[in-house]
Specification:
- This protein is an alpha/beta fold and 327 residues long.
- It folds into two domains: 163 residues, Rossmann fold (3-Layer(aba) Sandwich), CATH 3.40.50; 151 residues, Rossmann fold, CATH 3.40.50.
- 36% of the residues lie in helices and 14% in strands.
- The chain contains twelve helices and nine strands.
- The strands form two sheets. A five-stranded parallel β-sheet has the order 7-6-5-8-9.
- Helix 2 packs across helix 6.
- The longest helix has 21 residues.
- It is globular and about 55 Å long.
- The structure holds phosphoric acid mono(formamide)ester.
- Phosphoric acid mono(formamide)ester binds next to helix 3.
């Protein structure tokens, strides 16, 4: 059954017209994105790192929250597809003079933009904007509050597939601040959709959301049991900017219990890979020697960002052909 998000993000042909959430998509769509991203891998080694797929299109990066990886890799992805990309700087914009989000968007629409890439601190912001803008502008969710970060989840799926192959044989453990993590929510949905048989979350009770038992996961509070024989270990940052209360006794104590050290990683399979969406806090959720080790995929995830974001931009824009353009 299609939910509200699905109805907004797919057109009548089942194609992606916005990319707002993994929730509501399907395995075929995710595999198509993974395969399209694979076709772009290696482009950064070509003498001309560009294809003309989005020539003449105008994309606006609208980041209402800070970012290093997501904003820059979307910019690079758009440039590699030959689109024109504008980086809208909130801190120097008329937003500081009281202009509302709605009026800002209307002005950017009037500049004949084709796509907005939105990061916003409020959960549901990208979905709200997708319903508010004119029908010929595509919206990509680059992270909204603690709700979703679907493009991060997809580049993580690409990293896992490239290093581990078959999703149907994997045990994946996600460790840390699940409560505030939009990345974890999107990853769990993508892993389940792609057929991962065992998805575990590990963390203190205070950092797990209410109703977590409704998700297709196993819950652990101890690293030894949770990491046991895992193929993939995904570490998360403590999202202190979203914590209204003190949810852990201290960072030191958190590191003792949940920080990934050599000793704790030994509970996982010997060839387990370690992932982290970034930014990492060394000595809080991960030991430096692990972050910099051959088992660490952290920079390889960043390397997968550009081809995956190219795949998402190209796929969404292709659904805006004359035939399927929303009326
Ligand atoms: N992973 C991620 O979203 O990083 P940025 O906040 O730097 O974009």
């Amino acid at each position: 059954m299609q939910n509200a998000v699905t109805n907004v993000q797919l057109n009548q042909h089942g194609q992606l017209r916005h990319f707002l959430s993994i929730d509501g998509l399907n395995k075929t769509l995710l595999e198509t994105l993974l395969n399209t991203a694979e076709s772009f891998i290696g482009m950064d080694e070509q003498p001309i790192k560009k294809v003309p797929l989005l020539r003449g299109k105008t994309i606006v990066n609208l980041f209402f929250e800070n970012s290093t990886r997501t904003r820059t890799t979307f910019e690079l992805a758009a440039k590699r597809l030959s689109a024109d990309i504008l980086n809208f700087n909130i801190s120097t914009s008329a937003t500081t003079k009281g202009e509302s989000l709605f009026d800002t968007l209307q002005n950017l629409e009037a500049m004949a933009s084709d796509m907005f890439i939105i990061r916003h601190p409020d959960s549901g912001a990208a979905h709200f904007i997708a319903k508010s803008v004119t029908p010929n502008i595509a919206i990509i969710n680059a992270g909204d509050g603690r709700h979703a970060h679907p493009t991060q989840a997809m580049l993580d799926m690409l990293s896992i597939r490239r290093h581990k192959g078959d999703f149907s044989k994997l045990t994946v453990a996600i460790v840390g601040d699940i409560l505030h993590s939009r990345v974890a929510r999107s990853q769990i949905q993508a892993l389940a959709m792609l057929g991962v048989p065992e998805i575990r979350v590990i963390g203190p009770k205070t950092l797990l959301p209410k109703n977590i038992e409704l998700l297709p996961i196993k819950i652990f509070h101890q690293m030894e049991a949770g990491l046991s024989d895992a193929d993939v270990v995904i570490m998360l940052r403590l999202q202190k900017e979203r914590m209204q209360l003190s949810l852990i006794p201290s960072e030191h104590e958190y590191y003792q219990c949940y920080g990934l050290t050599k000793q704790k990683l030994a509970y996982a399979k010997p060839d387990a890979i370690v992932m982290h969406p970034g930014p990492i806090n060394r000595g809080v959720e991960i030991e430096s020697s692990i972050a910099d080790s051959p088992q660490s995929m952290i920079l390889k995830q960043v390397n997968c960002s550009v081809p995956m974001r190219m795949a998402i931009l190209a796929t969404v824009m292709s659904s805006y052909s004359e035939k399927s353009k929303p009326s």
